[in-house]
Amino acid sequence: MTVDALTDLLGTLRARDVRLHPDGDSLHYDAPEHAMTGDLLERLRTHKAGLLRRLAAHTDEPPVESSGPATYFQRRMHAQHHAGRLPAGLNVAQRIELTGPLDVDALGRALTALTARQGTLRCRLVQYGEELVQEVLPVAPVPLPVTDLSTLPPGERGTAGDDWVRRTAGEPFDLAVAPLLRTALLRRGPQEWTFLLVVHHIVIDGWGLDVLLRDLTALYTAALRHPGDAPPTDEQASLPPLAVTYPDVGRWQRDHLSGPRIRALRAYWDEELADAPFDLPLPLDVPRPERHTNRGATVEFTVPPDLSAEVEALARRRDTTVFTVMLSAYGTLLCRLSGRPEVVVACNIANRIRLEHEPLVAPFTNNVPLRLRSGGDEEPVVPVDAAARAFFGAAAHQDHPLALLLEDRAAQGRPADDRFPQAVVVMQNQAAPALDLPDVAGEVHDLTVDGMRSEVCLVLVPETDRIRGHLRYARDLFDAATAESWATAYVGLLREAVTEPRAPRATTGPPTT
């Protein structure tokens, strides 16, 4: 058996959560029900000697507690991590300012208990030939180093703290080394702390971050009530047991996308995206470089209360959502910038279609393509109804992973542009992340780690009476003034959209490349 074939066999075993145990010249295994087929048993018997040698050469490695195939999302993130020049751009980082009598020992034990509950926080991604596998390692204490700046002069603490946060958040992960979680504390005063939480996107998404903070709050509270060396248990924290693990989800996704559902998904997307333009010729400020640095920047803007109220009123009249009104204006902007009557943008969608997926700290988010069609006029307008049809159709078929969809198109001789998606839209409907520790006030701030994976990304954050917008753009391609003009034009398009039936207008200029 060749080394490559042996690696492939190990990948198959890991994907099925089969664990091997050498015992002298014997080889034993533990496997879930139905995991071992007759063919797999025969391959084990035939290549027992090679497997024993392989296992003997790795006796110093920690045992694998459980394993399963990487999900399509993880495969895509794995490829982006290794292809990008700024792999730290996939770090999900939170800066949490804490004020009060923080119990550092309790926080450390709560973090260890959190990883015991949520296996993705102690997993690694390992490539076995063609098989990318998620491997969950045994529970181990989570490092929580403390850096003390309280002895510095007050005027120097802010700069020193910002530098510390930037360095710690911007350090890339090695995806083959668990855990893909980093925590650290900065002490700024007697009862003033900065808690830094960094997780790789390959094991978490926005929903999962909310779950993480809720679980951590419950476990910290339990650690205060149950002092000692041991981490608190789920029962002590009143946390219900999890029905599935993320390796289970990887196997479920394989089964889910190998039966009647995948035929229905392919039928929908083949029809919806037939002849759709998967490139987006935005007007560039500088020639496109041969290789991007992936550096990004952000223009922040606000949809003011009066306009936000009018957008809500328009959504009610059209029996749709605020997001689809905002989406239609984004489509109109991109059509005019590109000179195209239609564009395809990617939209982040939760994709937690099963109840047992909801309490997991794990990545489920999918980028669904939205084909936004205008009337094809000289000044194209994407109607709200057209945006709504595109979004709700995609939402009903959100379980078709973008990576698989692009593979399908390539197999059909219709490959998407390598840069797709060039434009992304995100609506953050969830409440702002919160860490509510007993007697400790906390403010959670999302940290943007440099690393732009699209050319332009519109993030919309609804607040009580307004909508905050973040227009992220690739610094390799666009100047800040250009992005600012697009943000202004976008708000102008919204204002004109709410004065229906008059078509919205905005000055955006023709594309140059």
UniProtKB/TrEMBL annotation:
Q: Which InterPro entries match?
A: CAT-like_dom_sf, Condensation_dom, TubC_N, TubC_N_sf
Q: Which positions are tagged coiled coil?
A: none
Classification via Pfam families: Condensation, TubC_N
Annotated Condensation domain residues: 69-506
Tell me which Gene3D superfamilies the record gives: Chloramphenicol acetyltransferase-like domain, Non-ribosomal peptide synthase, adenylation domain, Nonribosomal peptide synthetase, condensation domain
Top-level taxonomic group: Bacteria
Looking at the record, the residues that make up the TubC N-terminal docking domain are 8-53
Which PANTHER family would you find in this protein's record? FATTY ACID SYNTHASE (PTHR45527:SF1), NONRIBOSOMAL PEPTIDE SYNTHETASE (PTHR45527)
**Which protein, by its recorded name, is this?**
Condensation domain-containing protein
